Amino acid sequence: MAPLIEALRGYEILDSRGNPTVAARVTLSSGVQAIGHAPSGASTGKHEALELRDKDPRRYGGKGVLGAVRNIEEAILPALRGMPAEVGAVDARMIELDGTFVRKSGLGANAMLAVSCAVARAAAIVSGEPLWRSLEMAKGRAALPLPMVNILSGGLHAGRHIEFQDFLVMGHGFGTYAETLHATVQVHRQARVVLEKRGYPVSGVADEGGWGPSLPSNEAALQVVTEAIEDAGYRSGEDFSIALDVAASHFHTADGRYALKSEERVLSASEMISLLERWAGAYPIFSIEDALEEDDWEGWRELTARLGSKLQLVGDDLFTTNPRRVQRGADLRAANAVLVKMNQIGTVTETLEVLEMARTLGYGAVVSARSGETEDSFLADLAVGSGAGQIKIGSITRSERLAKYNRLLEIEKDERLPYSNKLMVPRQFGAPQ
Ligand code: PGA
Ligand code: ZN
Q1: Which ligand has the minimum distance to the alpha carbon of residue 45?
Q2: DSSP state of 26
Q3: pLDDT at res. 158
Q4: Is 109 strand, coil or helix?
Q5: pTM of the entire structure?
Q6: Which residue of the set 63, 104, 341, 404 is catalytic?
Q7: Is 341 a catalytic residue?
Q8: Which residue blocks in 284-347 are alpha helix, DSSP H?
């Protein structure tokens, strides 16, 4: 008989910024135990599922999660006790209990996700399969993802020196994930050399482990990354391309414009698109995330019409891993790829559904960590099992990031799984390439 859920404990633990987050541990009747951790973002989208915080100013500046922990032990456990460890059924039960659909304000998405991950992991242990295989939605779909790796940070992750949040590289000139990672580390190292040579002081690292230098402009960051690729001995545009996370919602003004203080201009959506178009011509850019504000659907339509056949245009704050918003994007032809963050929607099952939806709609998918992470490597297995093709975990320093990169190295060594280094502009709505 399949083992049943017997116990569930919640814990308040700390994330990579030292803020509280939620852990859950499930115990099955067979004695199997498994854990799950919820990550936490800083540049969160308006439409994300609710991260339940205590708001008690005496603890962690109000960021405590004891209420979410209580929900796990007092509300979720009684509803799950005696159920088989099957993540689809467990998530459905929690969603019903929560009663707020995508919002998750009944129980808290942090409480629900920690439980969901713990149960998915317990199910894998029971089946004797690696976690990624038990997350595979169709046989033969699993594949190692191409990493999109942070080199420099700006915006909310690095003291707002420059507005764009993330300058990343994608190594697509290498035959294996391990070789890609090795080359990416070379570029990351070289970026420091370039920064120092150009007289931009490097003082410590940013929230996702990349450099967080004081730079004069967003374009200067593009120059540094391009030079780092080339000085490390690689061909820009052929071995490596650049990905940006503009995170534009976070410097969008009340009158609907984009304040690029470091470039000394305030731009309309159309001007922003033109600027990105120019930079994509001057630098080896392949992917741009959150180029515009999260509710500017009209702007996103224009962006996609103008740049969508040449570039991967990723919606993070735009979609918040929410199936309704992804469907709206498809209807409006806005963006051509979805950033997928488990805690934006709150359960493993709904995350897999959004990944499936992206595939059906011809959208690309990038499985993504948060800026606040833990040592949980669940995300690596999710990226492999779903065959999403791309993963974004931050930089290649700091162990909350490396837990995932290293798990991918382990999976690559153990299993014969496909790895595609091809960067393809997503098919988008079934249109021919
Ligand atoms: P966040 O940043 O986790 O702080 O939201 C990551 C991102 O914007 O992609
Ligand atoms: Zn983002």
Answers
A1: 1
A2: E
A3: 76
A4: helix
A5: 0.97
A6: 341
A7: yes
A8: 297-307, 323-332, 342-345
Q: How far apart are CA 11 and CA 291, in angstroms?
A: 37
As given in the structure block, the two tokens for residue 139 are 């046989």
Q: Are strands 364-368 and 240-245 parallel, antiparallel or unpaired?
A: unpaired
Beta bridge partners of 149: 169, 394
Closest CA to 380 of 392, 371, 370: 392
**Residue 269, C-beta contacts closer than 8 angstroms, at least 6 positions apart:** 256, 258, 292, 293, 296, 298, 299, 302, 303
Q: Other CB atoms closer than 10 Å to residue 418's CB: what's the count?
A: 10
Q: What is the tens place of the pLDDT at every residue in 338-363?
A: 999 999 999 999 999 999 999 999 99
pLDDT of residue 432: 38
CB 72 within 8 A of CB 114: yes
Q: What is the pLDDT of residue 395?
A: 98
- The amino acid at residue 365 is A
Counting ligands in written order, the one closest to the CA of 392 is 1
List all residues whose CB is within 6 A of at least one atom of ligand 1.
41-44, 165, 245, 247, 316, 368, 370-371
Q: In which residue ranges of the chain is pLDDT below 50?
A: 430-433
Q: Which token pair is 260?
A: 């690029």
Query: Amino acid letter at 178?
Result: A
- Supply 38's token pair: 């919820």
* pLDDT given at position 431: 46
User: Which two three-digit tokens encode residue 353?
Assistant: 């559904």
User: Which tens digits make up the pLDDT trace of 214-225?
Assistant: 999 999 999 999
- Closest listed residue to residue 146, CA positions, set 239, 36, 247, 43: 239
Q: What are the beta bridge partners of residue 259?
A: 266
Q: Which residue has the tokens 């990723």?
A: 314
Q: Does the annotation mark 197 as catalytic? A: no
Instruction: Please give the radius of gyration of the chain, using alpha carbons only, rounded to the nearest integer.
Output: 21
Helices 109-127 and 87-98: crossing angle in degrees, nearest 10, is 160
What's the CA angle centered on 341, arms 337 and 347, to 5 degrees? 125
